[in-house]
Structure formats: C-alpha cells, structure tokens
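fyi for ur records
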Amino acid sequence: MADPNAAAAVLGSSASRLVRPFSRRGLLSLAALALACGRGAAADRAGIVEALAGEGGAERGGAMLPLATGDAVFVGDMVVTGETARLAMRLGAATQVRLGGRTRLRIDRFLVDRGGVFTLGNGAMLYDRPDGAPGRDVEVETPYGRLAVRGTRFFAGPSQERFGVFVMRGRVRVSAGDAMVDLGPGQGTDMAAIGGAPSPVRAWSEARIRAALALVE
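which gave:
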C-alpha cells in the first residue's frame, strides 16, 4: 500500500507548482469552480455503504473503484460484489439495500422523496424502506422482468433454481413475458427463464424465505 504521507507530499508539491502562476482573482475563480463541482457531485450522491464483508466496488466513469464501509455511492454507479460478499447501502435517509455475492446493481435514479430506478443485472437484493419513509415509487429492471414497487421490503434474486420475488411488506407488481402479477405481504412468484411469465402468486415456506434472506444477510 502506498505511503499516505508520501502521497500527500507529492500532492502538496504538485498543488504549489500549479498555484504559483495564478493571480488572486484566478485563485478565487478556481475556488468557485471547485465549489460548483462539489455541489454537482453532492446532488448526484445516492447514499453510503453501511457495511461490507468481502469485496465490493463501483463501476463509475469507466473505472472500477473499490468500496469500503462509509464510502459514498452515486447515481449512475454499478455496484458490484465479489463471489461471497455481502454489502449494505443506506440510500437517502432511511432506505436500505442489501446485496448478496456476485451481484450487479446499477443505481439509475434515486430521489429521496420520490423513489428510484435500479437495474439488477444478476445476483440477489433485499430492498427495505421503513413504513412512512419518503420515496414510495421504485422500479427494478431485471433480465427476467420489471418490478414496480409500492411497498417497503422485498427480496429479488435466485431461489430454488429460478428467479424469485418475495414481499415481506407492501406490494410489488411483477411484469414479465407479457403477463403480470401483484404480490402482497407473504407472497412470492418465480420466473423459470428469461422471457417467461411469472408463476401464479403463492405463499413461500419459512424454509424458502430463510434461504433467500441468507443470500443477502
């Protein structure tokens, strides 16, 4: 690992070389530009990494950046986890998203008071928003279909060799293969293949629920 003191010295000497040619007015202009850029970045911030066990990263601006607990995540990030990793993000003030191993989730859009749009490329996720918290409308695009979320806690990911969706609180509408089902608390559905229709709504057994949650917790 690079010596942080050495890195700071290099940055400091580089900064001093860059600053000398500028007048006071130029420095003020640069400071205003930096402040404006900072505000733009803050506006795109979606949340932070609350917990991470194993490897996790974010594809951002064409580069893969390693993530650690406390790091910010931004709109546009593709959050990626390692094979056996577990990652928890806090989005906005109250929404939590947990990811299992070998998962890819892009934060396409997130507004605290309106919800968000996510793309689950593969893997498992658990979405959890407390009752009464802002941001009710959420959409999740998956290879198997679209999830329109009007609820607060649901699982989506591999389950019993299929892609399953299960709701603990609230409601989720699953649209896939020119068919649609509505799930309420304690209900789930499956898609056996990409392009296939969701299975009839049914209650999941306690054993299946535990197995699904074990993928993300």
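The chain is about 20% helix and 45% strand. thats all i got for now
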